[in-house]
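Model the whole thing, not chain by chain.
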Amino acid sequence: MSPDTIIATDRLNLWYGDTRALVDVSMEIPDRKVTALIGPSGCGKSTLIRCFNRMNDILPGCRIEGKVMYHGENIYDNGSDPVSLRRRIGMVFQKPNPFPKSIYENVAYGPRVHGIRDRRTLDSIVEESLRRAALWDEVRDRLSRSALSLSGGQQQRLCIARTLAVEPEVILMDEPCSALDPIATAKVEGLIDELKKQYCVIIVTHNMQQAARVSDYTGFMYLGRLIEFGGTTQIFESPRDELTENYITGRFG
Amino acid sequence: MKDKFHDELARMRAGVLGMGFFAEQMLSDAMRALQENDTGLAREVKERKVRLSGQNDTLEEDAYRLIALYQPVARDMREIACALKIISSAERIGRYGKDTAGVVLSLGETRPDDLVNALSLPHMAKLVLSMIDDALHAYETGDLGLIAHHHGRDDVVDKLRHTIFREGITYMMEDPRTITRCTNYLMVARYLERCADHSCKIAEKVHYLVTGERIEIR
C-alpha cells in the first residue's frame, strides 16, 4: 500500500438483500487529493462512497464483505465506532440539507455534539469553517438568520462548512453540485480545489466534465465493479479499458 | 446528442483524410510536372492551393466547434487533436507541392530536364509519397503496421537529400550553366525531405490516436 493512501478497500462486496451492489472492489485512495467516482446510474458509486463512513449499516438487508481500511484499520471490525468514524469522515449530500436553524447553529452543531461549549471557541470554529467553505464573506453579518434563507449554492457551502467544523480528515461528496446552477457549481468546484490542500476529498458525480475538472484521480465503476482507476488525465485522455472509453465518450450509459 | 456528435466526428475525419490525399496529389502532380516539364500541370497545381487553404480553414473551424459544443474526452478528444495536427501537416505538404510547381514555372518550358533524373529526384519523390500515403491510410484504417517503419524510411530520405545535395554541387562545379537549375532542384529535394518529416508527424498523431501514447519519430 502506498504511504499516501488514507482509505483502501480490499475485495469489498456489498449486497442489498439478494442484489449484489459491489463486486470485489479493491482500491487505494490517496490523502490530500481529490478522487472522483464516475459511472452510470446504479453502478455502485454512491454505495461505495457510503461504505467509507458506514452509512450503509443502517439499511435493512445490507450485508458487507471484505475490508475498508482507514489508517490501516478495518472500519468494519467489531469495536470500530461509526460515530467517531463519521466525525473523521464527513459527508456532503446531493441536495443541500441544512438544519432549520440559524447559519451559526448549523456550523456549531457538530462541535457542540462533540462537547465544545465555550462560546469563543465555537465562534472561532464557525468563522474558520465558513471561511474554509468560502462562505464567510457572504454571511458574516447575518449569522443568526435562518440557514434556509440562503440560496441553494450557499446552503451547499454551509453544509460543507458544517462538515469542516468537526475537523474531519476525509470529505465524501455525493453529487454535491447536481442541484446547483453553473455559478454555484463553479464556486463549489473552486472550493474543492482549496479543500484538497488539507483534506482527502472523494466525490461521486454524474457530470464527467466536473470529474475531469476537479479530481486528481478517477475511478470508473460499472455494474458494481471498479473497472478502471487511475490519474484523471490518463482516464480522460487515454483510458486503458474499452468500457471506460465507451462510457466517457458517451457511447453508452 | 452523442450520436450526432459521433456523426460529425466521422464527417470531420473523412474531411481530414480527403484533404490529406488532396495535398499528396498536389505534391505528386508537381513532381510529375517537374519531371515531364509540364508547365500546364504545374500551373494547375498552383491553383489548387486555394482549395487546400479552404479545406484547412473549414476543418479547423469544425474542430473548434466540436470542442466548444461537446467537450470531447478520450478517443474523441484525441480524434480532434489529431485532426488539427494532421491538417496542418497536410497543408504544408500541399504547399510544398505548390512551391515545386513554382520551380517548374520559373525554370520555363525550354529547360533540359536530364538533371532531374540524374539527381534521383523522382526516386526520392516516390519514397516520400509512399510515406505520406501509408500515414494517411494508417489514419483511415488504424493499421499501425503501415507506419511501423517510418523512422527508418525517414532516415533513408534524409540521406538521399544529402547525397543529392553533394551531387548537385559537383554538377554545378562541372558546368556553371546548371547553377540556376541545380539550386532549384536542391530546393525541391529539401521540400521532399520536409514532406517526409510531415508524414512522420502524421504517423505520430495516428499512433497517439490509436494507442493514446505519444511517440516521436526521429
